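Q: Here's a chain of 141 amino acids. Please give me its 3D structure as tokens.
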Amino acid sequence: FVIQAGSPAYLPAFTHPEAGCGWVGIAGQIFDSSGMPVENTVVVVKGLFNGKAVDALALSGLAKGYGSGGYEIQVGTASAATSEALTIQLLNDRFEPLSPVYPVQTFDDCQKNLILINFQSTASQFWLYLPAILNESPESP
């Protein structure tokens, strides 16, 4: 998986309007190579934000406010400007990497408290169907 073209996008935290500037997070969707949403992929965000360690997990498909393959991770309660202090990566259900580790930039701006990062699979999906050949034994008398 790679970060989808056009990502990241920096927006106000529209899924948490009651929080105002008090919610900062990373969210988005995960898509397969044909553009279909992918659920049950582990999203990991690590690093340091506003002097606090961040080591958070999310599962794609649970944050429907972003779409079918949506995920969301809150990293703080006040905006801050950082460059490469946070990273994001996708893992499978055995916690094996599905993407590189990507640095995430944040801004000290309430209008950019939601960092929207979508991922797209680069894997070609190839299906091979083979006929089933059965060797039936004759029934005994």
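Q: Can you summarize the key feature?
A: The mean pLDDT is 91.
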